[in-house]
Design goal:
Mean pLDDT: 96
Number of helices: 6
Keywords: Acyltransferase, Multifunctional enzyme, Nucleotidyltransferase, Transferase
Pfam family, one: GMPPB_C
Oligomer: single chain
Bound molecules: thymidine-5'-triphosphate
Distance between the termini: 47 Å
Radius of gyration: 22 Å
Protein name: Bifunctional protein GlmU
GO molecular function, one term: glucosamine-1-phosphate N-acetyltransferase activity
Enzyme class: transferase
CATH class of the largest domain: Alpha Beta
Shape: globular
Length: about 400
């Protein structure tokens, strides 16, 4: 079965991280986010991957090429982001039989994707406390293995089963991809699923674990999940005076200097330099060519390619974009005194991250002056700077 993977989105809720790197290519452990989706499809037995690309699509194309893990990869370009059904429709010329559709920004548990491919027509579902923001699935009263309805974002959800953005469609669904625009002006795949439910017996496949990676803290959560699955391995240059505990991967070409303590899960990528005397706590990703220097503590964070945290700093529960420079003595607060959840600005609106601990999100090329204090839930746009000694309490 071919798998169509949707990776054309702009990732506006992920800004500023998605400004230079399209969301599907943001780092999750040792691969871009979308590679985890493609891997799930390949492991479930997909015989071809069709990637729907759009925003910054060349970056996606350059990564996957024309063959990935021995499976042919082809591309369909979605010119305008007109919705998920429109995205699959862009791939229509590639579809010639039953086909799977997966969101390129979702992490799934593998067993469910295996089952999805076997059970076609099928749709993945996850039980959530409040499904009102999702497509909600109903099943037959006398047969929990038969989907009877899907309703998009209902005010009064009939069940707790949320649509998790993974589908196995019969070949005929290829002809049903041109659906009218919904109230929010998008051509939604939910309408295609509804038609398949009307005409076929569709099986719900329950996911044990699922993550829709849309906002910056979900990128942290994605890394918490996938770094936690890595098996420790030392291929780089590790000083005898460094201490590595738990699952730690040091890739070839990475350097760990004396006095460093790393408590996994942690991944130190090729060309990264850690130490001397740095303390890295899991789940942390130190990307290619990043630098973590003397007396720096990094906890549960993503430090992107080319970023330097050179001296005397604390970074916790944060995502630093590419080529960020953190001045000596910069400290991140990641917890409020009242222990309340940390809020963050997404597309101009304040939303709760649902996390008690969350630090800062810094876009590419941010520079902080020495002794900068950064408050929890702060967003620094790409290229933003802070003065030495500043306490930054508002996004900039
Ligand atoms: P969304 O997360 O709804 O959209 P997005 O990724 O652009 O993010 P944002 O809302 O922050 O701007 O999309 C779900 C999946 O579908 C995701 O994998 C991207 C993909 N997609 C397309 O490929 N084309 C589209 O037109 C849309 C709307 C989504």
């Amino acid at each position: 079965m071919k798998a169509v993977v949707l990776a054309a989105g702009q990732g506006t809720r992920m800004r500023p991280l998605s400004e230079s790197v399209p969301k599907p290519m943001l780092p999750v452990a040792d691969r871009p986010l979308a590679a985890h989706t493609v891997d799930a499809a390949v492991d479930a037995g997909a015989d071809e991957i069709v990637l729907v690309i759009g925003y910054e699509g060349e970056t996606v194309r350059n990564y996957f090429g024309t063959e990935y893990r021995g499976i042919p990869v082809s591309y369909a370009v979605q010119e305008e982001q007109a919705g998920t059904a429109d995205a699959v429709n862009a791939a229509r010329a590639h579809i010639d039989g039953p086909f799977a559709v997966l969101n390129g920004d979702n992490l799934y548990d593998q067993a469910a994707i295996d089952q999805l491919f076997d059970a076609c027509p099928a749709v993945c579902a996850i039980e959530v406390d409040d499904p009102s923001n999702y497509g909600v699935l109903s099943t037959a009263a006398d047969d929990p293995d038969l989907v009877t309805e899907i309703v998009e974002k209902p005010a009064d959800p009939p069940t707790n089963l949320a649509n998790a953005g993974a589908y196995a469609f019969p070949a005929e669904a290829r002809e049903w991809l041109e659906v009218p625009a919904s109230e929010r002006g998008e051509h939604e795949i939910t309408d295609v699923v509804a038609r398949v439910i009307d005409e076929y017996n569709v099986t719900p496949v329950s996911l044990e674990r699922w993550l829709d990676v849309g906002r910056p803290w979900e990128l942290l959560e994605a890394n918490e999940w996938k770094l936690g699955e890595l098996e420790g391995r030392i291929d780089g240059d590790v000083s005898e005076d460094a201490r590595l505990e738990g699952s730690v991967v040091v890739e070839a070409g990475a350097t760990i200097e004396p006095g460093v303590v790393i408590e996994g899960p942690a991944l130190i990528r090729e060309g990264a330099e850690v130490g001397p005397n740095a303390y890295v706590r899991g789940a942390t990703l130190i990307e290619t060519d990043a630098e973590v220097g003397h007396a720096v503590e990094i906890k549960n964070s993503v430090v992107s390619r080319g970023t330097s945290v050179s001296h005397l700093s604390y970074i916790g529960d944060s995502v630093l974009g590419r080529n960020v420079n953190i001045g000596a003595g910069t400290n991140v607060a990641n917890l409020r005194h009242d222990d309340a959840d940390i809020w963050f600005t997404v597309k101009g609106e304040r939303v709760s991250t649902g996390r008690r601990k969350f630090g800062v999100v810094a876009g590419d090329e941010v520079k902080t002056g020495i002794n900068t204090s950064l408050t929890p839930g702060l967003k620094l746009e790409a290229g933003a700077t802070t003065m030495s000694g500043e306490t930054v309490e508002r996004d900039r």
